[in-house]
Amino acid sequence: MARVVFKNVEKEFVDGNKETFIAVKESNFTIEDKEFVVFVGPSGCGKTTSLRMIAGLEKQTRGDIMIGDRVVNKLHPKDRDIAMVFQDYALYPHMTIRENLSFGLKNLKQPKDVIAKKVKDASEVLGLDHLLDRKPKELSGGQRQRVAVGRAIVRDPQVFLFDEPLSNLDAKLRVQMRVELAELHKRLEATIVYVTHDQIEAMTLGQRIVVMNKGQIQQVASPTDLYQKPENMFVAGFIGSPPMNFIDVTYENGKVMMEGAQFVLPEHSVQALRAYEGKKLVLGIRPEHLFGEDITMGVPDTYSLTSTVQVVEQLGSENLVYFRVGERMITAKLHPDSDARVGQLKKFLLDMSKVHFFDVKTEKRTSI
Amino acid sequence: MVQKLRDHMWAYIFILVPVLLFLVFTLYPIISAFMMSFQRYHVLNPEWIGFDNYKTMFADSVFYKSLWNTFLFTVCTVPVNIAITFMLAYFIFQLRTKWQTFFKAVMYLPAVASGVTISLVWFAMFDPTKDGMINSFLGFFGMEPVMWLSQTSTALFSLMLMTYLGSHGAGIILYLAAMGGIPKSLYEAADIDHASGWAKFSKITWPLLKPTTLYLLVTGVIISFQVFISVYMMTQGGPDFATTTIAYLIYQTAFMFYEFGLASAQSFVLTAIIVVVSIIQFKMFSTDVEY
Amino acid sequence: MQSKGKIAVLGVSITMLIIWGIITIIPLYWMIIGSFQDSYADASMKISMWPEVWSFEPFSRFFDKTMAWRWLLNSLIVSSILTITNVFFASLAGYAFAKLHFPGRKTIFWILLMTMMIPTQVTLIPLYILVIDVFNLKDSYMGLILPSIVSVGNIFLMKQYMSTLPTSLIHAARIDACSEFGIFYKIILPMAKPGLSVLAIFSFVFHWNDFFWPLLVTESEAMRTIQVGLAGFKFADTTDFGAIMAGATVASLPMIVLFFALQRYFLQGITIGAVKG
């Protein structure tokens, strides 16, 4: 049973000017056994620091970290029963692939035949058997990536740690490796903690996703829940591409008012927004939940905005149409056949069942 | 605390020997020299004499002469040598890689010879008779032989000349590395803007090479403040103290007259000058050098 | 599309470089050529740019009158040992300062760095007393070696160099159950080979050419290094230019050969640890 548990974990760094910088704040979560959990967030959000604290490469300032049933606070990385795949692969450049794969096992004083067998098994799984006597610099990016994964597999650890492993690959290879990693997780039946800044990687790989920003966990949830029920504006804006649109509105008397439009809200929304009577709110709607008047996909035209089209991007599978509401630039993801030209005055329909409201101050989503 | 020490035990083991050696052979001597500058040194019972050494030093006309010589030497060599270095680097930069390497090697080569050998060779070349190498070269143009090292008017200049014509290889290599690091696109952009050759040089090349120039300037000043071997080998500070530099004076005071206290006092004046120069260095480089 | 201006610049460049190249090389050329001319014998004292008669006499006089073979051996021993100790300790400490975040790291390194500003003239007298009077190491290899086992400058250089190596490899090795010394020995040293070679070469040349400390710490002819011995020979026998040139050639030829053999390291090594950008 290899759960990974963070209990009130904090990490502070002291920079050159003796100023304390908090990299991770009061972090609490449990990663279940055999779960694939992805940490995602912008750079500097504390996701890599969290991973390194699990590995033992950084020491937390406060709090407890458990792997399996052990508190590992004081354990050396080698004693934590983990393996890690690094962003730059961190292959030992002067060793052959075989030596790279077996280095850890040799250090752990495993018998030679055991090492040989483990290296053979792992290299077969990853299709590296013909490369074992080469040096890392003779390998392609994708092959090096596999060696890095192989080095983790031979250790047969309880927890695999991945630190942005795909970010050095080109786009095509990245998609292919993503699929391979997902398959690998099924085969290994191990706990995987995976760090990335790429939300698509996070959504496709993670069973659960931890969204972080500025050292704080914003939300821990499944990909679908993150998309459908983001807890705050940060998560709403971070997950989904293009990001969710935000529109400043005022709520009054069961109506929301914004520049150029006002809607009477359905009854259940009115109940939820009672506390905001006369106050400002932020309305959030994803680009894919906006429709053109011409191709409505069955959305009623009860709720609509009319604005001048500023830019149209034709992506083939869809058209991204940009227009303004007040100060904010809004994106709509429309059907490729929809008629939208720059300068055209166009009516956009909102799928009101997919709309979120956020508190202006706390940026938290109001429960609808 | 104990836990912390144990976590980092290896780091401390790694620096242990160097730090111990540093304490014994660098830090202790510095402190000792400082104390000595207030003492009349004797192996068994040094005598505290307050500022007497400093008073003696500041009353000594040779001390002022040596400071002046050192200052003159520095001011007349460092900027000139940087200019020579820069021009040579600029010329080499025009060539193809193969020829760049060739000229880098040629310009660097004399730097592998020691100060002693170079001084010996120049001593021979400065031979004051008409058969001396430099004099016979001048004689070729109908000029009279010069008593290079043995008259006060030319002795210090001779030592300067030696540095002008010496190896500028290290500086050239640094300049070339920096020149190679200037993005080509900057010059292309300047071409599009119809910049003249001079404008490209003064607005792009020179400003972007400033860190290298400053580095050479400051290290050059520090080295030239300590000029010693050529003086020791060629003139012994003479004639009539014309080439007595501060470093040579310290050597003389300490190891010819065995006035350790006075020599220490003199060495701290040299330190003060170098520290001031170095502080200027750190001010200028704090953004460029990571430490 | 070579413009006229560019060709002119190229022409001026090549001309100037050839002239200055000759000027730079001439002292070395003259040293070598001078050591094959026996001006002492005909009492002319004149050294020509090309000898009328080639002679090995200056060399045999230099070796006959001095203990030059012994001096060369001394220099070889001292330079070799100091090269090894400097490379080992400077890389070890440089690695610790660059990559291991131990408490006190910045303070200790800062103190080391600050003392680099202090000129050798300051420490020389106490060092002299310490080594000669306290440790009683006059005229010994130990006395020649001890104060220079590892220099702060080399530690600084190695720290700069080590910080360019990827930290992730150290982390990977730590997870791979490698000991801390193992990380240094099995991972860092092999990766740092180019930098270590450069440091080794420059250390060797520096100590071979070093003059001031060997001058102070040695007294008997038998313990002189080649530089100190050569300087002493000059002061003892000022008029025999031929033999002096021969001695200078003997002292510098090993370094010139080394330079031609390892030119690449010399020329690229300069930029290691120097200014960035």
UniProtKB/TrEMBL annotation, chain A:
Keywords: ATP-binding, Nucleotide-binding, Transport
GO biological process, one term: carbohydrate transport
CDD domains with a match to the protein in the record: ABC_MalK_N
Domain (ABC transporter) ranges: 4-239
Gene3D superfamilies in the cross-refs: 2.40.50.100, Nucleic acid-binding proteins, P-loop containing nucleotide triphosphate hydrolases
GO cellular component entries: ATP-binding cassette (ABC) transporter complex, substrate-binding subunit-containing
Native source species: Paenibacillus agilis
An annotated Gene Ontology molecular function: ABC-type transporter activity
Record protein name field: Sn-glycerol-3-phosphate ABC transporter ATP-binding protein UgpC
Top-level division of the source organism's lineage: Bacteria
UniProt xrefs under PROSITE patterns: ABC_TRANSPORTER_1 (PS00211), ABC_TRANSPORTER_2 (PS50893)
NCBIfam families found in the cross-reference section: PRK11650.1
Pfam families assigned: ABC_tran, OB_MalK
Span of the signal peptide: none
Originating gene: ugpC
TrEMBL record, chain B:
Membership in a protein family: Belongs to the binding-protein-dependent transport system permease family.
Localization of this protein: Cell membrane
High-level lineage: Bacteria, Bacillati, Bacillota, Bacilli, Bacillales
UniProt main location, coarse: membrane
InterPro entries in the record: ABC_transporter_permease (IPR051393), MetI-like (IPR000515), MetI-like_sf (IPR035906)
Transmembrane segments: 12-38, 71-93, 105-126, 156-178, 214-234, 264-282
Bilayer disposition of the protein: Multi-pass membrane protein
GO cellular component, one term: plasma membrane
GO biological process terms held by the UniProt record: transmembrane transport
Domain ABC transmembrane type-1: 67-281
SUPFAM superfamilies: MetI-like
PROSITE patterns from the UniProt entry: ABC_TM1 (PS50928)
Keywords attached to this entry: Cell membrane, Membrane, Transmembrane, Transmembrane helix, Transport
CDD domains, per the entry: TM_PBP2
Protein name (record): Sugar ABC transporter permease
Species: Paenibacillus agilis
One Pfam family here: BPD_transp_1
Automatic annotation (TrEMBL), chain C:
One GO term of the biological process aspect: transmembrane transport
Subcellular location: Cell membrane
Keyword annotations of the record: Cell membrane, Membrane, Transmembrane, Transmembrane helix, Transport
Pfam families (UniProt xref): BPD_transp_1 (PF00528)
InterPro entries: MetI-like (IPR000515), MetI-like_sf (IPR035906)
Keyword Transmembrane: yes
Statement: the UniProt record of this protein carries the keyword Cell membrane: yes
Its membrane topology: Multi-pass membrane protein
Protein name: Carbohydrate ABC transporter permease
Organismal lineage: Bacteria, Bacillati, Bacillota, Bacilli, Bacillales
